[in-house]
Specification:
By secondary structure, this protein is α+β, with helices and mostly antiparallel strands. The chain has a domain at 246-334: Immunoglobulin-like (Sandwich), CATH 2.60.40. The protein is built from eight helices and twelve strands. It has helices at 2-15, 33-65, 79-115, 226-237, 246-257, 297-305, 307-310, 323-334, and strands spanning 122-129, 132-137, 146-149, 151-155, 160-166, 171-173, 182-184, 190-194, 200-205, 218-224, 287-288, 293-294.
């Protein structure tokens, strides 16, 4: 029994290092051709570095094992030995240079493969703020433009080109299962292309330290079948849903009268603020506050009541509301689907 338990323990310990190699935010669990190319590059680099490490250890072991005999004149040079050492060192330097050039070439090929696409891509503009993401889907006319926040929907099998802009400081776009990292620099537009191969929800993260809430600057990429994506896009183009009951109606009145409309937009109403996220369909999003908490009426109420406790340093001020006002406005937000 002890040997069997020990065997299970050894297998469990051996499997622990691989526990983080899957999931919705793993570069080793690729779900797009671009991420697959990067995962293969990681594998090749690890293999080459492993071989180099093994060779170094073997040479070190041989040097320790084969001790030279003591010489009567230790400072006297042996020309044959010096020649062999020069050849060995020169060969090692040349091999190192070849290895570095090969890794550089492989990285360049993988990057080129990540940007290559034969189909016309869906273009999405992503603007990073401290600390949230504005997502814009363009259209042929102004009424077809969709603006949302912290959640990117894409069709499965279609290339997506994400145009990246930073509004304040340097950020970095990274969805490990779908694409590599791309910096977002104020005053400069970068772009990144990926194609989701299968349906699912993937977590993205800002990969460049951007301030005190850098760790809480996440977003979701929702890959859907093309028909489901088009249906979602049509719903997003629609104006905000009208209040369904008296409580939501009261919540809309609070939203309009207490300064919320000065910072946020709700299409179909007089709220047209641009300082904060568009809230037209906030109730339909999976998470709020850039991936901080799931979207529920309770989390919406907690965020509205005291955003600085939940996410210190963010740009949303605390608005003093009574209990009835907070319940009403949270009901209104939850109903915006």
């Amino acid at each position: 029994m002890r040997s069997r338990a020990g065997h299970i323990g050894v297998v469990t310990l051996a499997a622990l290092p691989a526990a983080g190699c899957a999931g919705w935010q793993s570069a080793l669990d690729p779900h797009s051709p671009q991420a697959q190319a990067l995962a293969e590059l990681i594998g090749v680099i690890v293999l080459i570095c492993g071989v180099v490490w093994l060779l170094v250890v073997l040479v070190l072991a041989c040097a320790i094992w084969r001790r030279r005999p003591l010489r009567p004149q230790p400072l006297a040079l042996d020309q044959r030995v010096e020649r062999r050492m020069s050849i060995a060192v020169g060969s090692a330097v040349a091999l190192t240079a070849v290895t570095l050039v090969a890794l550089t070439a492989l990285s360049f090929i993988a990057t080129r493969k990540s940007d290559a696409t034969a189909q016309e891509p869906l273009v999405i503009r992503l603007r990073a703020f401290q600390w949230w993401w504005e997502v814009t889907y363009l259209g042929q006319s102004p009424d077809e433009i969709v603006v949302t926040a912290n959640e990117i929907h894409v069709p499965v099998g279609q290339p997506v080109r994400v145009e990246l802009v930073a509004a304040d400081v340097i950020h970095s776009f990274w969805v490990p299962s779908l694409a590599g990292k791309q910096d977002m620099i104020p005053g400069r537009q970068n772009a990144l292309t990926f194609t989701a191969r299968r349906e699912g929800v993937y977590r993205g993260q800002c990969a460049e330290f951007c301030g005190v809430q850098h760790a809480h600057m996440a977003f979701l990429v929702v890959a859907q079948p093309p028909e489901a994506f088009e249906a979602w896009l049509a719903r997003q183009r629609a104006p905000a849903a009208a209040p369904a009951d008296a409580e939501q109606e009261a919540g809309r009145a609070v939203f309009m009268s207490r300064g919320c409309a000065a910072c946020h937009s709700v299409r179909g109403t007089q709220a047209r603020g641009r300082l904060g996220p568009d809230l037209t369909h906030v109730g339909s999003r999976r998470m709020i506050a850039a991936g901080l908490v799931e979207t529920t009426r309770g989390s919406l109420a907690a965020w509205i009541a005291d955003p600085q406790t939940m996410k210190p340093g963010n740009a949303m001020p605390m608005v003093s509301l009574s209990g009835d006002e907070l319940r009403a406005v949270s009901a209104y937000m939850a109903g915006l689907r």
